[in-house]
User: Which sequence fits this backbone?
């Protein structure tokens, strides 16, 4: 009898416990549903920024500060132009008129209605840093005036389109002259499209002229009251005019640093092969000495004709350009380091003297010091290069 009674009690208790558990979950679900209804009720009251396309939002939701359908001219040689005129001048940004590709956008050759030939950079609207780059170039290049800095003539913004207008430099990029047998420079067609032409190897004298030009341009940028750190010095960002004078281009990754500071905190940026070793160690600071390192790598590239982002071989072992160069120098193999395509006649003129070649590579090595603080300033580099050319 007792066992029957206990069984009944256990069944009743179990029933009440199960009822309580189900009741708890029922009220919990009702509560969550009520919260969701309340949340959805408030959504229509949220304002959307419709005039700003997704591409104009940078990291952290940074929105455009540029008025839609806006243009500006920073040079008296350029009248303000509309997006329609730029589309007409580039045949709606035809691939036949592409003369290069900078960070986050292609560069086109364009002939404006007044007969002026310019370079047009159309930023990719889907680029993650596209608008940030656009604003950086406007704020920096529009004010800069130096013989070794590409002159920004103006800009045009319409809807999601962001276009920069530069002076046109006839001989294209240094990268093409160092590495491409055929490049889309110099020769023009009757329909304004760009033809590929065979490029002659640069002489040692011309290569030194280019190096001095880039050095002077960087010295100018670093010497401003608010120094400008380029952060992407490389051969494709050096443009050449008819006289092979170098002009630094593409300020999309540039950052300014106040004179009272030695660096600016930022995300690591640049091009593989040119970035300083401290970036690999997780250093999140852009400094002028990072530009110096990239310049040193560029010096090696200009003299050797080798790409910094491709492996070199020394005694059967693959390594980077800078490690290869140091080993070659340690074994006194300077002449073997030089680009074999350079004209032989320069040796006869004494322009390729071993002493000058050694000093050239010594300067490049100083710029590429592993320790940031031990690298020279660009002013010191310019002084060393001037002595080399005297």
Assistant:
């Amino acid at each position: 009898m007792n066992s029957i009674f206990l069984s009944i009690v256990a069944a009743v208790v179990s029933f009440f416990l199960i009822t309580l558990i189900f009741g708890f979950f029922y009220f919990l679900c009702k509560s969550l549903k009520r919260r969701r209804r309340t949340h959805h009720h408030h959504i229509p009251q949220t304002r959307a920024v419709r005039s700003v396309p997704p591409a104009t939002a940078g990291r952290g939701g940074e929105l455009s500060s540029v008025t839609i359908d806006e243009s500006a001219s920073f040079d008296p040689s350029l009248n303000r132009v509309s997006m329609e005129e730029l589309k007409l001048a580039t045949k709606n940004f035809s691939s036949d008129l592409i003369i290069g590709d900078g960070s986050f956008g292609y560069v086109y050759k364009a002939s404006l209605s007044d007969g002026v030939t310019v370079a047009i950079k159309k930023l990719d609207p889907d680029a993650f840093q596209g608008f940030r780059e656009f604003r950086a170039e406007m704020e920096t290049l529009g004010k800069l005036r130096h013989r070794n800095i590409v002159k920004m003539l103006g800009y045009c913004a319409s809807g999601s389109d962001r276009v920069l207008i530069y002076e046109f430099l006839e001989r294209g990029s240094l990268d093409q002259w160092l590495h491409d047998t055929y490049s889309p420079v110099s020769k023009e067609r009757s329909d304004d499209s760009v033809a590929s032409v065979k490029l002659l190897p640069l002489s040692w004298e011309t290569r030194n002229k280019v190096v001095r030009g880039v050095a002077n341009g960087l010295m100018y940028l670093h010497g401003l009251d608010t120094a400008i750190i380029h952060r992407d010095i490389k051969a494709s960002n050096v443009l050449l005019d008819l006289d092979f004078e170098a002009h630094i281009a593409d300020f999309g990754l540039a950052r300014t640093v106040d004179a009272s500071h030695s660096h600016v905190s930022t995300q690591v940026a640049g091009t593989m092969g040119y970035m300083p070793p401290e970036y690999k160690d997780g250093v999140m600071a852009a400094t002028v000495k990072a530009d110096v390192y990239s310049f040193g790598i560029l010096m090696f590239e200009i003299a050797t004709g080798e790409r910094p982002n491709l492996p070199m071989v020394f005694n059967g072992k693959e390594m980077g350009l800078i490690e290869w160069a140091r080993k070659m120098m340690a074994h006194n193999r300077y002449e073997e380091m030089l680009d074999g395509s350079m004209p032989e006649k320069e040796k006869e003129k004494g322009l390729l003297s071993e002493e000058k070649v050694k000093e050239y590579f010594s300067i490049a090595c100083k710029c590429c010091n592993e320790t940031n603080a031990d690298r020279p300033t660009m002013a010191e580099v310019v002084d060393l290069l001037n002595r080399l050319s005297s």
The chain has two domains: 48-168, 169-390. The longest helix spans residues 2-42. Residues 169-390 form a domain with the Transferase(Phosphotransferase); domain 1 fold (CATH 1.10.510.10).
